[in-house]
Amino acid sequence: MWYRSASFILDKQQEENDAEGKPESRLLSTASPSSSMADTLQNPNPQISAYYQTRAAHHGVVTTDWLAQAQAAVGRDPDDGVSEISIISTDSGKQLSVIDEFNNWRKQPDLAEAVAAIRALAWVIRSSEATTMMELEIELKKASDSLKSWDTTSISLTAGCDLFMRYVTRTSALEYEDFNSAKSRLLERAEKFGEISYKARKIIAMLSQDFIFDGCTILVHGFSRVVLEVLKTASQSRKLFRVLCTEGRPDRTGLRLSNELAKLDVPVKLLIDSAVAYSMDEVDMIFVGADGVVESGGIINMMGTYQIALVAKSMNKPVYVAAESYKFARLYPLDQKDMVPALRPIDFGVPIPSKVEVETSARDYTPPQYLTLLFTDLGVLTPSVVSDELIQLYL
Amino acid sequence: MLTMALYISNQAGLRYLAGDISGGNARCIAMLEAFQESIKDYSTPPEKALIRDLTAKINCYVSFLIECRPLSISMGNAIRFLKTRIVKLPLTLSESEAKATLLSDIDRFINEKIILADKVIVRHAVTKIRDGDVLLTYGSSSAVEMICLHAHDIGKQFRVVVVDSRPKLEGRLLLHRLVRKGITCTYTHINAVSYIMHEVNRVFLGASSVLSNGTVYSRVGTACVAMVAHQFHVPVLICCEAYKFYERVQLDSICSNELGDPDAISKVPGRKEINYLDDWANRENLQLLNLIYDATPSDYVSMIITDYGMIPPTSVPVIVREYRKEHLWI
After folding, report:
1. What CATH number corresponds to the domain at position A277?
2. Which residues does B197 contact at the CB level (< 8 Å), separation at least 6?
3. Are B235 and B205 in contact (CB under 8 A)?
4. Domain boundary among A143, A171, A199
5. What ipTM does this complex have?
6. What is the pLDDT of residues A162-205, one digit of tens each?
7. Best mutation site among B201, B306, B311 for testing chain A: the one with the most A CBs within 10 Å?
8. Cβ-based contacts of A388 with chain B (< 8 Å)
9. Digit-coded pLDDT (tens) for A100-135
10. Which of A132, A136, A220, A393 has its CA 20 to 30 A from that of A318?
């Protein structure tokens, strides 16, 4: 039996419990109120990547086993769960509530993580009592730092925060005589960012149409909203193409993508993740999304992307990446282990003996030499241009 | 004029000749300091304009320096910086004001582009050193030395393989400094680099210059080390200040290289029995080639660490372009 999303259901149960226990606590709790400030700013469960949990919740198809496991995990963690929160009016309370605000936004499946971060930062501006640009900047810096440290595994969260901070520091108060107009200008910008995010997907979908030709076979990996938009636009413009979907273990995001594509009447074939090399000869191009685009021009994406890119390279198939420009991050991993580990639970369906180690990393790094082109809202870029854009943005 | 030329020769030129100053940064700083001394003593001759006359003087010193030893690219960039500063001096300034401006400009250049840049490079580079890593370096780079020492200071556990080569054996100096600080080191010659590479996690190399196509211009032997590292899938990190970037493109090591003393490779000190080449100069059919630099293709470079952050070798032209802009308004 399949559920739409495990953590969604867990959240709901939690909310119900919360409502029974303490009707005034409006937000999902993530930390116990008794812990010190340092603790409250920490992710309650650093062992598990919040970013990938959310993705799994939004896009994954989850089995009952997984649900049971997740439930058990929640039960085991004494800090987590149904404990209520009281928002303290001190500094730590404020930073905590940024995270809550962010988590609120993050739950919307259509909203990108970076946009959620920027909305949360906009909320900080709105509720700020600062009277000068400098104060506001310091306050924002604190908020964005606490957001970033809350989930260090999420690249788009970090990139979103950095991007917005960059905008704030560039829009100096000098340009606007009056502090209030500067503030409202910033808020306006934050609001606009959400639209830009939607628009970016449309732009990327339009740009990629030239590359999808009639009769082609496209391999996709994982569930990416941008890739779905690309394929949707292609099918709407009456292109004839076939899609091969990998299963996308362990959260089975590929299954969800194949469901969506079937709704669009696109011929879809599902593959298990290990069948990529077997099917590669019938593939014309590979489309993947990205969790983050790094400075080298490589991408960090769901586990399995690297091996698909390797297979594609050895068979001379183009690998296209669809990613919005706010996923560009100032990171430069040298190898697979040179990243903050993002872990998540994996369900093997059978009990695993405790002596057996399990690789639970959720993502891998694909170096730029295995990528052909990146479709972004800045245009169709080769991997080496990414760094140029980043330099122009941040220097 | 004579005193100024003497300054230059005392400060920098003769010491180059003697090989006292080596290392791109040290040479560049010494040259700039010599320029500062000569600017301090400068007075505009009657009926001449400071801008023109001083530029001519600087040109004169530079040609003297070139006679001592060909300029490195970093020095060329620094000279160009100084000349643009002189040309951009407002005509309304008095001589003493103009001199003060130039002196402070040179100070700023040394501080911002060399000393602070090194600090930034060190800060970036230590993030790429993990506990238990084995680092490899070739020759003696001041930036790499600072990185190792800083990483050691902040308590990272790592080992350094210092690879060296004849005839300069510069690695020994670096080795000496690292060992003195208590860093575990391995010393080997470049002949053994393919053996040692399999246990290495990161290769840190210095550079004399980085060219626009990402080619790294550095001490001869660097290309070999980088190529072996690439073959073994070991990331190669080049540590280079952005003022050493150059907009020129070079495809091989031979053009615009510098020739060292051929005797340095023909003789092995302390081994009389193998000095078969003692009379090489009299032979017509023998030429010795002692190159100082070589060019490492960008394919072998994983990352360049500069004061602008960590960038791929393909982004060097962007930095050169942005840096140019800055050059004009500093």
Report:
1. 3.40.50.10470
2. B136, B228, B229, B231, B232, B234
3. no
4. A199
5. 0.82
6. 887 877 776 655 566 677 777 777 788 777 776 777 788 889 99
7. B311
8. 315, 318
9. 777 777 777 677 777 888 888 888 888 877 777 778
10. A393
